[in-house]
Structures are given as structure tokens and as C-alpha cells.
Amino acid sequence: MSDWFALTTRGLEFISERELARLPHVADLERGYRHVLFSYRGTAALLLELRTVDDLFVHVATWDGIARPRSTLEQLRRLGGLLDLEVGVAMCSSVRQIPVRPAFSVTASFVGKRNYTTDEIKAAVAEGIEAEHGWPYQPNDGAANLNVRLFIEHDLALVGLRLGSAALHERPYKRVHLAGSLKPPVAAALVAMAELRPGDRVVDPCCGVGTIPIEAALIGAVAQGGDRDVEALNGARANAAAAGVAVRFQQWDAQALPLAVGAADCCISNLPWGRQVVVDADLALFYQRSLTEMRRILVPDGRIIVLTSTPELLQAHGLACENQFEISLFGQTPVIAQLRML
Fold first, then answer.
1. How many whole angstroms separate alpha carbon 23 and alpha carbon 15?
2. Domain 4-162, what fold?
């Protein structure tokens, strides 16, 4: 059995797998829907530095035959009582303090139809753990010492203990959130797509609260972001300060960037979708003008990585699409596109 599993955004599994593969002492990588299984013999604390995964767990069990009928709830209650959590608790204790009698939470998600809810799954598993281990159940995950996670795909369930005290996607620096703001692991995946070198100059023309340029700065890029929204920029500055990185933010119109030709090695942006964020101009015209500006400020071999729900608006503008794939986000299926100059 693999020692660990990471959960990730649907569509970004290959990027998370690639990040894991670059770590020393990682082996037996197995990519699946929204998860990556792997073995690891290194220092557990190093895994808490992963950027593109949503969360990370010590793999304590795999349960088969988790079917649709409500009778499965009794099966889950029984299996919860049979969980061997000793190794997982020891691993968590290597990176943070765990009480002798820890309060625990249960989180669950599933793929496929069920005749029971996630709340009923959590209650059933919690009853089994309480009965066997005598630990107090804490429904509020934020107040628990340990999190037991069930990821159920059809009739198979991965069961794990979260390594960290909070989910990895909950970056401590993300103090300010606004509509359309990206989850940090998605922003980190966009940055990973760019294959940046230390010192590369990165510009995000529609930076919002700064998640993309902050993630770029955290891996050594010289990052800059701008937005027309003053409130968003104030949030971006607060988030960058909390992250401990120097990112230059300024108010601008992405359709007329106040930057010189060759000012950027790479542009990375979550372009407005016309849903979470409203733009003044017609969306097609906005894309035309902003992409033209990105192309103008890039060095000749520069790269553009964008997230959008309207990939048809990326055509032309002197750019060619090298790679494009769909992800799940905000209940929608936008695409990440990798563009190069013609």
C-alpha cells in the first residue's frame, strides 16, 4: 500500500504528480481522479511545502465495496472501528503536537450516486472511531487535532489522516478573498505550467488579490501584478506582506499596460470570465486588447499562461496555443491555456 495520498483539483492531477516526482525519496506514483497515491521515505515536513495539491494525507486504509445502498452506512461504521491509526498519528506527531486523546473530525466526498449523504458518512465513521479509540468527535474541522478523510470513488474509498493542522490549500497568507479569487494550488499550478527560472519576470495583468504573483514570487520569480480594482489591490498587498514576499502591485487597465516592450518573461493570469468578475468592455474586445498587451510586453520567447472559461476568445492576437486542458473550478469547467508568440 502507498504511504500517502494527495488530493488535487480535477484536471491538475498530472501537475501535482509532476511536483511530487521532483521530490527526493518519492516512489510508486499512481495518478487517479482528483488524487495521487505515492510512497515516501523522506522527512514528512517537506511534504507540507507542496504547492499544487489541495491537501495531503497519511494513507491508513483502502476500503472496497463501498456501495450505493443505505446499508453501507453500517459497513462504514464497522470499518471506522477497525481503522489502525497508530502509524498515521505518529507521522502527524512528527510535524506538530498531537494530544494523547485527540479530538478528531471526519471529512468525506464521493464520486457516483449514493442513497446517503456526506454528513451521514461522517457520522457513521466517527461513531466507529469513537467506540474503538475513545477519541472525542469534533464536527468542526478547524477545532479538531486530527482530520480523518474519506475520498470515495465509486466503490473504493481512500482513508487518510491529514498531515498538517489545516488543508494545504488554506495558505496562511491568504488573508483577503474577493469574488473570482483563485485557490492558491490552482494559481501554483498555473505558475508550474510556466516552468519559471529563478529571477524570471512575471506579470499578472488581472491580479485581483494577488494569488498568482505571490505564488510566483514564492518560488523565486520577480513578480508584478495590476488590477483596476483598488480594493483588490489593497488585498493583494496585504496578502503579499503576509506571505513575506516583495511583489509590486499597481492600478492599471489590462488593455493598456503601463509597461515597456520586453518587460516580462512570462504573463500568467486568471482572465475575467464575465461571471465572477464583470468587465466594462465587451468580453471579446477585452480579451483582444489585453492579450495584445501581454504579447507586446513579452520578450521574444515569452510565455503566456491563462485560465479562462471562454477559450474561443484566445484565438489570433498573434498567439498560438501550445497546450490546453480543462479543470473543475467554482462549479464550472474552465481551461488552462499555454500560449506562445507567433
1. 13
2. VC0802-like (3.30.2130)
